Amino acid sequence: MVREPNDGPPGTEDRGYPARAAPRCGGLPALDAAVAECRACPRLVAWRERVGRERRAAFRDWEYWARPVPGFGPPDAALAVVGLAPAAHGGNRTGRMFTGDASGDFLFAGLHAVGLASQPTATHRGDGLELYGVRVTAPVHCAPPQNRPTPAERDTCRPWLAAELELLAPGLRAVVALGAFAWQALWPALGAAGWSLPRLRPAFGHGAEAVLPAGPGRGELRLLGCYHPSQRNTFTGRLTPEMLVALLTRARERAGL
Predict the structure, then answer these.
(1) Backbone angles phi, psi at 61, to 5 degrees
(2) How is 1-23 classified by DSSP, letter by letter?
(3) Whole-structure pTM over 0.90, yes or no?
(4) Measured on CA atoms in the order 80, 81, 86, 92, is the torsion positive or negative?
């Protein structure tokens, strides 16, 4: 079966839809529902739906999600893990962040090893996976061609991430940025969500750490950099399971989990 293209409610094809809709969401369930209706970036809409129609041979019997993929995890998470965007045949297929691809296998195995996930694998939305105190999301919610969103697509999608961070703010204590793209995308989103940003922002690196001061309705926030668990990084040994577990252990401690 192939999911029919999602036309969405009126106004969801407007580039201003995320900026209009995100601040009106009173909780994460409402935000997740609004994210899944978004059609603000024509190139991404065309690509995600084309992938859903053509499918990879190994998944020809799947009904692809082929929509924007919301964040995943509890609404009172103290730790957020922020990636890049859903994979074409991963989250774009399964409808859940980092689910159904090699990067997700690597990430969830690490989260399980440090006690933040109920199981080390993530294959589909009904697989029983639970996250403990951590929410997984991304700056771009649609699968992009060649895993490369444009700056305009990243900026159009930013209100979703800013709203998500603001809704998590009362209990959020640490954020892990998976890769340089997430690190750069997080700064303006954190600023829009109400955090005071440093004048000089630290450069991305594996193990890099920055501290944002506490403010009204929120505590001190630690931002940690981690190499993205892409196959390029994991196959070459740039990111090993031991490196990921060590980084996630530090993030868990910073979050008080």
Answers:
(1) -95, 0
(2) --PPP---STTTTSTTHHHHHGG
(3) yes
(4) negative
Q: Looking at this protein, which amino acid is placed at residue 197?
A: L
Encoding tokens for residue 164? 């998500």
| Amino acid making up residue 58 | A
Cβ–Cβ contacts within 10 Å for residue 75, how many? 14
Residues 144 and 124: their CA atoms lie apart, in Å, by: 20
Other beta carbons less than 10 A from residue 127's beta carbon: 14
Q: Is 206 exposed, middle or buried (0-12, 13-18, 19+ CB in 10 A)?
A: middle
pLDDT tens, per residue, the chain with 257 residues? 334 445 556 678 889 999 999 999 999 999 999 999 999 999 999 999 999 999 888 899 899 999 999 999 999 999 999 999 999 999 999 999 999 999 999 999 999 999 999 999 999 999 999 999 999 999 999 999 999 999 999 999 999 999 999 999 999 999 999 999 999 999 999 999 999 999 888 999 999 999 999 989 899 999 999 999 999 999 999 999 999 999 999 999 999 99
- Could you identify the residue written with the tokens 């991963």? 90
Altogether, the residues listed in the chain come to a count of 257
